Structure formats: structure tokens, C-alpha cells
Amino acid sequence: MLRFRFLIDIAFPALVMCWTAIMLYSAVVSDTGYRALAELRREQAEKTAALELLQARRVALEKKADLLNSKALDPDLLEERIRAVLGYSRDGDVVISRRELDRLLDAGKAKTPKN
Q1: Whole-model pTM above 0.90?
Q2: Where are the alpha helices (DSSP H) in the chain?
Q3: Element (H, E) at 33
Q4: Minimal CB count within 10 Å: which of 54, 59, 106, 110?
Q5: Residue 92, Ramachandran bin (φ over 0: left; ψ between -120 and 50: alpha; else beta)
């Protein structure tokens, strides 16, 4: 009788409390707990932002590709690309060579006082 009473009064409540503690610990700390859920939500927000940037870039590239379509070629865009790739210029354009630009930038840095 004493043994049965011990099980009901002490052992069973102690086991229930231990089981509850283990379940609470698992709910908070484990790989499938609340901390992991918060981390997954943060990661999802980052990935969503990156996806939106990529989608905006894709739309811009699709518009540019449409302008380069041979059926509806935009003359301004074509001229811009030819001038950029081949290095052509119009009369009246100011052209600064890369070497001259680097020299001017270095000279400007040398004259700038350092704090």
C-alpha cells in the first residue's frame, strides 16, 4: 500500500514535471523549436528581398532585350551600344583617354590634404 501511495503522490507528479520540462525545452531550443522558426522567418525575409531585386533586374533586362530585338530596333540604343563598344565619338564630344583620366585622378588625390 505504501508503495502504491508513493507512486501516486511522488513518482507520477515528478515524471510529469520532467516530461513537461523536456517538452518545453524542446519547443524552445531544438531544431524544430521557436528559435529555429525565428531563424527561418529571418532567412525567408532576406531571400524574399533578394528575389524582388532579381525580378526587378530581370524586368529591366527584358526591356533592354526587347529594344535590341531586330524587328523593333531602337536607333538611339543601337548608337549608344556601338559608341560604347567601339569607342566612336561624334563631332563636338569631349573624349578623355583612360590613361589621361587616371593621371588626372591621381593628381587630384595628391593635392587633397590628408587629415
Answers
A1: no
A2: 2-6, 12-29, 34-67, 75-86, 98-111
A3: none
A4: 110
A5: left
